[in-house]
Amino acid sequence: MKEEQLYEITICSDALGETAEAVVRATMRQFDAHQVRTKRISHIKTEDEIRAIMEEAASRGGFVAYTLVQPELREMMKEEAIRLGVRAVDVMGPMMEAFIDTWGDAPKRKPGLLHQLDEDYFRRVEAVEFAVKCDDGRDTGALLKAQLVLIGVSRTSKTPLSIFLAHKGIKVSNLPLVPEVKLPRELFLLPSSRIVGLTMDAEKLYKIRTERLKAVGLPFGSKYAELDRIQEELQYAEDLMKQVGCLVVNVTDRAIEETAGLIMDYLQR
User: 197 exposed, middle or buried (CB, 10 Å; 0-12, 13-18, 19+)?
Assistant: First the structure.
């Protein structure tokens, strides 16, 4: 059997490279990219490093995505791309040029500003710690301190969404909805604008829960993954969301980033 060829996208940065990697991964979702892997190289400081990176990329037949704020490194990247015939995508450069052309401003040319230890950084760290502490209804007393409370039945992406939003600096608590479990009184003291309900199509949730049973080694046929039970839970959740008057987001086939974008737009409004 012929082995599938693997392709590589090299991500380069004179800082961490998270910006370029996020753009690459968002792009990969638009393609059937199961044969594509990424390799991130951070804290590039010299032109020699650029040469070595580009030569390796040329030998592998992939392309390079980069965020380099130092002009000499960016220029070397362009020269090596031409010399070796390697496609190199400048993720940040066009945006910087737009700032310069539009407002005549000069960039600071300092790598890593996105991750400097400023007030915003510590706010995000605090939000992540809060989300972990309040995950899955662990600390119901903290619900009133949350900027946002996510509610929904099991496997509707509450935890990953909480952590994603926390990285944006939002203090998020999440609460699982189970018909047999009494809800904390704090939930009903919150304004509806600070609550978001997550729901999902029953058939999709059935598939997710069935796969979850396999992953944890539980026997097939558990009530947790029965379609009738799932429909009962979803109806209970729908009734509660109507009662509290919150925004409801159907997360069926939505990426975490897309759901988070909808919620952040809602919070800003």
Answer: buried
